[in-house]
Write a structure and sequence with these properties.
326 residues; 2% strand; globular; 12 helices; MetI-like fold; mainly alpha
Length: 326
């Protein structure tokens, strides 16, 4: 069976005391080792704080705009544009300015965090479930199952992602969506496209790990004791894949945030009435010279969020990898 990781450390002796017996050994669990390494990475902890802050902003969006005193994200106000229809810049009542329709940019940036995180977490969850399942089957059983699933991965990866996304978005843009309403227009299409094009990457990583693990001694021992394939896969192999799955999932989240922003920029993402960072950047391209704030603030929110998730992913990778421990 797989052996748990232990960190053996000597407990310090009191000053002036000479050791006259066996030294006491303290064993640390894998979770304690993980936290010990992670808390030593100040950059990762700072990034984790930013991630938690962004998540809280998304959850508490209505309360935040109520405290700040800005209007709801879809409320238009023509009085906030000048005589030429150009939006006014940041003021005390509108700290991030307004857009060309007089909608408050601060409120839309705050609510845009909801769209990005919901899409990223939903798509990442589906990608992990599908990718891990297919990777386990392909890597463990090999043979025709591995060949079929591997060729399917290659086929999916051969599709041009953005062209596929635009095509699916247009095909599912009707009120009833696609597949008898299973894929709804808006965020439903975005989550479907991201999941469809992302699962092969996770499946390949899991497959490669399983091909190595299935030849290990603890798997042979379990098989010799009469364990079924299902038990070996879920009780012996899968627990050893937790670390790479967690690391790659944290890498997928910022990628999916950018993915959603790109699709919204192309007009395939969220509904036009829904605040989205990518859609805001797209709308700001025509008025950037006269309204720099409309692109700057959602762009900074997107940059900081993606960078924070990437730094957290790097920190988790180092903390979960015992070879990098100092």
């Amino acid at each position: 069976m797989s052996t748990p990781i232990l960190d053996l450390a000597r407990e310090p002796e009191p000053a002036g005391h000479e050791a006259d017996g066996p030294t006491t050994i303290a064993a640390r669990s894998p979770l304690e080792l993980f936290w010990r390494r992670l808390r030593g990475d100040k950059i990762a902890l700072t990034a984790l704080t930013i991630v938690v802050f962004v998540v809280l902003v998304a959850i508490l969006a209505p309360l935040i705009i109520k405290i700040v005193g800005t209007p709801k994200p879809n409320i238009t106000n023509s009085d906030l544009t000048d005589d030429f229809g150009q939006p006014l810049g940041p003021t005390a009542s509108h700290p991030f300015g307004v857009d060309q329709l007089g909608r408050d940019v601060f409120s839309r940036v705050v609510y845009g965090a909801r769209v990005s995180l919901i899409t990223a977490f939903a798509a990442t969850t589906l990608t992990v479930l599908i990718g891990v399942s297919i990777g386990l089957i392909a890597g463990y059983y090999r043979g025709w199952a591995d060949s079929l699933l591997t060729r399917t991965m290659d086929l999916v990866l051969a599709f041009p992602v953005l062209v596929l996304a635009v095509g699916v978005g247009v095909a599912c843009s009707g009120a009833d969506g696609c597949l008898n309403g299973l894929i709804q227009p808006g965020l439903g299409v975005v989550i479907f496209v991201i999941t469809l094009t992302s699962w092969p990457y996770m499946a390949r990583i899991v497959r490669g790990q399983v091909l190595s693990l299935r030849e290990r001694e603890f798997v042979d021992a379990a098989r010799s004791l009469g364990a079924s394939d299902t038990r070996i896969i879920f009780r012996e192999i899968l627990p050893n894949l937790v670390a790479p799955i967690i690391v790659y999932a944290t890498v997928l989240i910022p990628q999916n945030i950018l993915y959603e922003a790109a699709l919204s920029f192309l007009g395939v993402g969220a509904d036009p009435d829904t605040a989205s960072w990518g859609q805001m950047i797209s709308d700001a391209t025509t008025i950037f010279r006269d309204a720099w704030w409309y692109m700057t603030f959602p762009g900074l929110a997107l940059l900081i969020t993606v960078l924070a998730f990437n730094l957290v992913g790097d920190g988790l990778q180092d903390a979960l990898n015992s070879r990098t421990a100092k």
